[in-house]
Design goal:
Length: about 425
C-alpha cells in the first residue's frame, strides 16, 4: 500500500486541530478523560467524548470508495488513505450501488444488500469526528426491486418498485443488525426520505399531484405538508433539509422545532419533462445540487439561495459539484471531463479522463464522486479509478487499478 505525502502532512495539521477541539469538548461537558493515552481506566470511568465502540477515531476524513461489478457481483472497498483494495462481499447481478455516507446499498430485484464501509463522520456542529472500522457485509432489506435508499441518524428508508417501503433502525444497523421498524404500503411515487426521527412519505393526492405525509418510525401518520409536489422525481438529503424534485421546481422540507415545514423553489420558467431532473448529485450532505437536464445540459440548484441555474453544456454522462463557489464537473459521453463556473456557465477547464478505448456505453456507467479536495471517476474500460484535483485544471492526481470492472461506485467516510 502507498501513502500520499500531501495527505500525510494534512493529517498532521488536522490531528493538532482535532486535539484542540477535543480539549474544548472536555472543558465544555466535563466528560472527557484526562490523559487519554496513559494509565488504566477504571470500569466506572466515563467514556471519552466521541467514543464509539469498535471504531478508531481519526484526525482526518477517512474516505473510502465502495466498488461493485454489476456483472460478476464483486464488491470491494478502496481505502483512499492507504491506497489499498479489499474484498467486501458479493452483490446480485445487475445491482446498483447508492450510499448514505457510511453504508453502501446494492439495490436489485431481491431488495437492498447493506455493506458497512467502516468509514464515517459525526457532525457536532462546531466540530466533526471521523471514524474508521473494519468494513463488512451487514445483511439485506428484502422487497420487490429496491429503487431508493435514504437515511438520517435515526432511520434508513428503502423504497421498492411496488409502492412499498421499509423503515430500518439506523442505530442498530451501525451495530450490524437489520431491524425494520415499519412497512409502508401506500407510497405513491418517488422515495420515502427520513427527516430526523420522522419519514417523509409521498402519497397520492387530487389529480396528478403528490402530497407528502410525515410518519413516525412505526409508519403512523403524524401530519401532512401543505405544499404539493406534482410529478415527483427523485430526492436528496442536504445538511439543512430534504429536497424533492417536482414538475414545477423543488420542494424543500426542513425541520423547525421538530416540526417539518415545506417551501417550493420554482424553476422560474416552463421546463419540458425531458429536461427535468430525475435524480440529484452533490457532495455528501451538500446544499449545491446538480442534475442532468436531458440533452440540454446540467441543472444547478443552490438550496441556500433558493436558486436554479441551467448550464447549457450539452448531453452529460455524469455530473457533480463540491458546493457553492466550486466548479461544476461534467463528464461528457466522449470521456472528457469539463469544469464550469456555476455563476455564468463559462467552461474553465477540460481534460480527457476515460481510456481512449471507452465507448459511450462505458461513459454512461461512470459517476463522479466528490469531496472537499478531490473528485473520483470510475473508468470501466481501463478498470481504474481516477482521482482528480478539480482545483488544478482537472489534474489527474492518482489512478487506482482494480482486477474487476468497477461499474458501480460510491464514496463513504463523509
Amino acid at each position: 500500500m502507498t501513502r500520499n505525502p500531501s495527505k500525510a502532512a494534512a493529517a498532521a495539521i488536522t490531528a493538532l486541530t482535532l486535539a484542540l477541539l477535543l480539549a474544548g469538548c472536555a472543558e465544555g461537558d466535563g466528560k472527557e478523560e484526562a490523559g487519554r493515552g496513559g494509565g488504566k481506566k477504571s470500569a466506572s470511568s466515563p467514556k471519552p467524548h466521541g467514543y464509539v465502540a469498535g471504531a478508531e477515531e481519526a484526525a482526518e476524513q477517512q474516505s473510502r470508495l465502495v466498488l461493485g461489478d454489476s456483472r460478476s457481483g464483486t464488491v470491494a472497498v478502496l481505502d483512499l488513505i492507504e491506497g489499498g483494495t479489499e474484498p467486501l462481499g458479493r452483490m446480485r447481478e445487475g445491482a446498483e450501488l447508492v450510499t448514505d455516507g457510511r453504508f453502501a446499498y446494492a439495490n436489485s430485484g431481491g431488495g437492498s444488500q447493506v455493506f458497512d464501509s467502516g468509514a464515517w463522520m459525526v457532525d457536532h456542529g462546531d466540530h466533526v469526528h471521523y471514524y474508521r472500522a473494519k468494513a463488512r457485509a451487514v445483511g439485506t432489506v428484502r422487497g420487490k426491486r429496491a429503487e431508493h435508499v435514504h437515511s438520517s441518524s435515526w432511520l434508513t428508508a428503502v423504497t421498492f418498485a411496488d409502492g412499498t417501503a421499509r423503515l430500518v433502525d439506523h442505530g442498530r444497523m451501525e451495530k450490524g443488525r437489520i431491524s425494520p421498524s415499519a412497512t409502508i404500503e401506500d407510497v405513491d411515487r418517488g422515495p420515502v426520505v427520513p427527516l430526523g426521527e420522522h419519514a417523509l412519505v409521498p402519497v397520492a393526492a387530487a389529480g396528478s399531484e403528490t402530497a407528502l405525509e410525515v410518519r413516525d418510525r412505526k409508519g403512523r401518520k403524524k401530519a401532512s405538508l401543505d405544499e404539493k409536489c406534482p410529478g415527483l422525481r427523485g430526492a436528496a438529503v442536504t445538511r439543512s433539509g430534504v429536497v424533492f424534485g417536482c414538475a414545477d421546481g423543488a420542494l424543500f422540507v426542513t425541520e423547525k422545532g421538530r416540526k417539518p415545514r415545506a417551501e417550493k423553489i420554482p424553476f422560474g420558467r416552463e421546463v419540458p419533462a425531458a429536461e427535468r431532473p430525475d435524480s440529484f448529485r452533490s457532495r455528501s450532505q451538500g446544499t449545491t445540487l446538480t442534475a442532468k437536464a436531458g440533452d440540454k445540459g446540467v441543472w444547478v440548484l443552490n438550496v441556500t439561495a433558493r436558486d436554479w441555474k441551467l448550464l447549457e453544456t450539452g448531453p452529460a454522462a455524469a455530473v457533480n459539484s463540491a458546493g457553492e463557489g466550486m466548479p461544476v464537473l461534467v463528464l461528457k459521453k466522449s470521456g472528457t471531463l469539463n469544469a464550469y463556473d456555476a455563476s455564468d456557465g463559462r467552461e474553465t477547464a477540460s481534460r480527457r479522463i476515460l481510456a481512449k478505448s471507452s465507448s459511450v456505453k462505458d461513459a454512461a456507467r461512470s459517476v463522479i464522486e466528490i469531496d472537499a479536495g478531490r473528485a473520483y471517476i470510475n473508468d470501466t474500460a481501463a478498470k481504474k479509478i481516477h482521482e482528480i484535483d478539480y482545483n488544478d485544471d482537472l489534474r489527474k492526481a492518482r489512478s487506482f487499478p482494480v482486477d474487476f470492472t468497477p461499474s458501480e461506485m460510491v464514496e463513504t467516510g463523509r
